[in-house]
Write a structure and sequence with these properties.
Elements: H1 3-12, H2 16-28, H3 40-52, E1 56-60, H4 63-74, E2 81-85, H5 90-97, E3 101-105, H6 116-122, E4 127-133, H7 142-151, E5 155-159, E6 167-168, E7 171-172, E8 179-183, E9 196-200, H8 203-211, H9 231-241, H10 244-261, E10 268-270, E11 277-278, E12 283-288, H11 297-307, E13 312-313, H12 324-327, H13 342-345, H14 358-363, E14 367-371, H15 377-396
Parallel strand pairs: 2-3, 2-4, 4-5, 5-8
Antiparallel strand pairs: 1-9, 6-7, 6-11, 8-9, 10-12, 12-14, 13-14
Bound molecules: pyridoxal-5'-phosphate.
């Protein structure tokens, strides 16, 4: 097995508890939610809701389908716009899945999260919903974003794929929006291999999701899918949730080690953590500002290679609106469908083009990141030492 996976699995401590819970599922021979009162799906969702501090949690197959389902529940559809992040593509894809038009919002240069001013500036008469991503364990400014959504009657979806344990003003990620969406995919803090969770304080919404969108009705009244999680996944999820504090503590410590390594460096700028934000350990990120100090980015990239530091330069390389599928309107493989469909563009032509979100375009190539999922404490120390040496070499010229 590749060493990085070995480390990731050691941190997660898959073991006796997961095995015991899985054995219970098999012994009960009840692998789905059907006729399974008190099973792991129920136990996992109740424990998860308590952890996030919301009334209801609904287990899902993964976060991507949960996001798409959230768009569907928001009522956004053909001709409506869903405002979403420009640093990752997930919200935009979810919007497009139910034929809504993704409208990209710029980020704040220092936090890398959605910029509330850009959100407000992008609202049109067709805006229906907002999907805000709490990027790499740091929550977006939920005071301002929530206020804007309330003022404009926009349905608020929080993408909490990176944000279990993240908080804003003491409240957990996922508890601000109409719906919150979590991911349990392999690269997330809590992993079941694949899996997801919808959370909400709105019992009416929860009822709609469970009863109308559940693909359980004999004759669905509108477009739906099977978004459900199964009992074996929930069994692992519950076991992992019971260990999540340990896992988050580990990632927070490794994040602290890497942040300390760039302390005092004039040209690597740490990510700004707003005073109200409680950051959960996940990815380390900072920005290259060396061009403002007469330094050559390529030299740091070469040192990274030579010294085996393990930094990743740039993230996604370009904003999602520059991806071929949006820019050339090829979402479904057919040119122009659906983005340039007259239904979309008749009222407000919207083009995915360079310059749409200037801050994210400037930010992306400057981002330097390390995925902490694969880092033991020793790995973090080694990376930090090497990074500090590279900083010294750069400073000496
Ligand atoms: C921010 C964000 N949202 C959504 C997703 C989709 O998660 P999943 O793989 O569970 O569908 C990801 C996955 O990487 C993500 O990073």
């Amino acid at each position: 097995m590749d060493r990085k996976w070995e480390v990731a699995r050691q941190i997660r401590q898959y073991g006796a508890k997961e095995k015991a819970y899985l054995a219970e599922v098999i012994d009960r021979a009840a692998l789905s939610h059907f006729d399974n009162e008190g099973g792991f799906l129920q136990r996992f969702q109740e424990a998860f809701a308590a952890r996030v501090g919301v009334k209801t949690a609904i287990p899902r197959a993964n976060a991507m389908v949960a996001l798409a389902e959230a768009v569907s529940v928001s009522g956004a559809s053909t001709t409506d716009e869903v405002l979403c992040d420009s640093i990752v593509q997930f919200g935009a894809l979810a919007a497009a899945y139910f034929n809504a038009v993704p409208r990209f919002v710029d980020v704040e240069r220092n936090s890398y999260n959605m910029d509330p001013a850009s959100l407000e500036a992008n609202i049109t008469e067709r805006s229906k919903a907002v999907i805000v991503t709490h990027m790499w364990g740091l929550m977006a400014d939920m005071d301002r974003i929530k206020k804007i959504c309330d003022a404009h009657h926009l349905f608020l979806i929080e993408d909490c794929a990176h944000a279990i344990g993240s908080s804003w003003n003491g409240r957990q990620a996922g508890s601000f929006g109409d719906l919150g969406v979590f991911s349990f995919q392999e690269f997330k803090q809590l992993s079941t291999g694949d899996g997801g969770m919808l959370v909400t304080n709105n019992e009416d919404l929860a009822w709609i999701i469970r009863n109308k969108l559940a693909f359980s009705g004999e004759s669905p009244k509108f477009m739906t899918m099977n978004f459900r999680m199964n009992e074996t996944t929930a069994a692992v999820g519950l076991a992992q949730l019971e260990k999540i504090d340990y896992v988050l503590e580990h990632y927070s410590r490794t994040l602290g080690i890497l942040n300390d390594a760039i302390g005092g460096c004039q040209w690597l700028k740490p990510r700004a953590v707003p005073p109200k934000a409680g950051q959960a350990g996940y990815w380390f990120a900072c920005t290259w500002e060396g061009d403002k100090h007469g330094l050559d980015y390529r030299i740091l990239q070469r040192l990274n290679e030579e010294m085996g530091i393990g930094l990743r330069f740039g993230f996604n390389q370009e904003p999602p609106y520059q991806f071929d599928l949006f820019r050339n309107a090829k979402l479904y493989g057919h040119p122009d469908c659906p983005i340039r469909c007259p239904l979309y563009t008749a009222k407000s032509p919207y083009r995915y083009q360079r310059g749409l979100c200037p801050t994210v375009e400037d930010l992306m190539p400057r981002l330097i990141t390390v995925n902490l999922i694969f880092m033991s404490m020793e790995d973090a120390e080694r990376t930090a030492n090497r990074l500090q040496k590279a900083i010294c070499i750069m400073d000496k010229g």
